[in-house]
Amino acid sequence: METGTLISLALYFIAMLAIGLYAYQKSTGDASGYMLGGRSLPPSVAALSAGASDMSGWILMGLPGAMFVTGLSSSWIAIGLIIGAWCNYLLVAPRLRVYTEYANDSITIPDYFANRFEDRGHALRIVSALVIIIFFTLYTSSGVVAGGKLFESSFGMSYESGLYITTGVVVLYTLFGGFLAVSLTDFVQGCIMFIALILVPTVTFSLLDNPIAETLNAINPQMFSWIGAGSLIGIVSAASWGLGYFGQPHIIVRFMSVRSVKDMPTMRRIGMSWMIVSAVGAVATGLFGAAYAAEKGLVVKDPETIFLILSQLLFHPLIAGFLLAAILAAIMSTISSQLLVSSSSLTEDFYKIFIRPTASDKELVLVGRISVAVVAVLAIYLAYDRESTILDLVSNAWAGFGAAFGPLVLISLMWSRMNFFGALAGMVAGAVTVLAWIYTPVTINGQSLSSLLYEIVPGFIVATVAIVVVSLLTPPPRKEVTDLFDKVQQAL
């Protein structure tokens, strides 16, 4: 590998560790500071942190790869995600920021559920915390695998070395700096991703010899079609990814951390601008990359590496190193968020509730740091098997979170009549529906249910119906609960 590329990557790693050290000195004195940044993040940091932790390697590898293969029809996923994120900022963000502060200063999503629905028996807290810990451990493992493969393919290092380097750097700044370190590194990583997703497609387009429509039509006439070889149901499935936003703990926890609800419009404008430009850049990278490869006779064995290939071919080694850092930034920003959310649930929803209810803030911060290390070790262990079916399960985790938590979060913030029984029924119904849709051995014309319609659609619908029906069939919440709901609405 070129010296310039290595220099760029070394500077990137040093910057991430320096931010972790800065955050360690600033805000790790209590549990709220370590796990939620003391609810003091400026809107710019919160917005880019939410975006960077959301997109992961998908925005730089997955979406360009899909566009490279199928063309414009894959862009419906990006369109659905943009609409979903916008609705999340409008409907969930301000309400969750106020409600979690008023509801006994809830600092985790299970904590919010427990306080919102007076979960004295801890059933909601346990079920939601288990969902978070299990799925996020798998999610984290997926990110670690991506880092291992990136180091293996780009640096000629062993896959295992890549696992340890990727995880080691993330664990260091997450373990010591907590939520503030994760958010600040996410901000920097979001800026790197933003620049990279403008630079690569712009340069690639400038080097094309022929009109892009002409080149893509020569490859496949359906490449430039919004429908492609799919169907209306296929478009609905792709666009329905946006439903998942309401239930992603590592994203919505950013809404809880911003310094004031008055900052929400600014956070929304910054976050949505970043997301739209990044999504368009990812779509353009795939399309322009397909045209460039066709014109130059470039053989691309793995379409998901098109961003990496263009970076190495078209740019000076120093800039190529910066662009490679963008891929690492996408991977690491999501791993760090998932580690911290898992750690927060282990600390607040298990250790504090069942083991040491009287634990001091200093003790909880220590347990939180230990939990970060434990989840990271588990993720590395799972990542050692590159062919593990865990990665197949992770591909469905977005739907699992979206169906189990999405309707629950959304309705709990907007309907005072929703009660504990409705919340529990909705969470279980959503998760079970998603799993059944994926694994039930039922086929239609030889196709599985999951291949016909993305499982988040039936999961979200069933969970919503369960919440409404069960809440109406069981006793209403106590007056103190509805009074708190009214207080939150007045504060908005």
State the gist of this model.
InterPro entries: Na/Glc_symporter_sf (IPR038377), Na/Pro_symporter (IPR011851), Na/solute_symporter (IPR001734), Na/solute_symporter_CS (IPR018212), Sodium:Solute_Symporter (IPR050277). The protein is mainly alpha-helical.
Total beta-strand segments: 2
**Number of discrete domains:** 2
The run of helices and strands is HHHHHHHHHHHHHHHHHHEEHHH
Order of the strands making up the biggest sheet: 1-2
Helical segment tally?
21
CATH class of the largest domain: Mainly Alpha
CATH architecture of the largest domain, by name, is: Up-down Bundle
Average pLDDT across residues?
83
Structural class: mainly alpha
Shape: globular
Contiguous runs where pLDDT drops below 50 for at least 5 residues: none
The rounded distance between the terminal residues' Cα atoms is: 54 Å
Helical amount: over 70%
Radius of gyration of CA atoms, rounded to a whole number = 22 Å
CATH fold description of the largest domain = Sodium/glucose cotransporter
Major sheet size, sense and barrel closure: 2 strands, antiparallel
CATH superfamily of the largest domain: Sodium/glucose cotransporter
Provide the β-strand percentage band: under 5%
Describe the secondary-structure layout.
Elements: H1 3-26, H2 31-36, H3 43-55, H4 62-70, H5 75-102, H6 109-116, H7 123-155, H8 159-206, H9 212-219, H10 232-239, H11 249-257, H12 264-296, H13 306-314, H14 317-355, H15 361-383, H16 390-394, H17 397-412, H18 420-439, E1 443-444, E2 447-448, H19 449-452, H20 456-473, H21 479-491
Antiparallel strand pairs: 1-2
Helix pairs in contact: 1-8, 1-14, 3-8, 3-11, 3-12, 3-14, 4-12, 5-10, 5-11, 5-12, 5-21, 6-7, 7-8, 7-14, 7-15, 7-17, 7-18, 8-12, 8-14, 8-15, 9-12, 11-14, 13-14, 14-15, 17-18, 17-20, 18-20
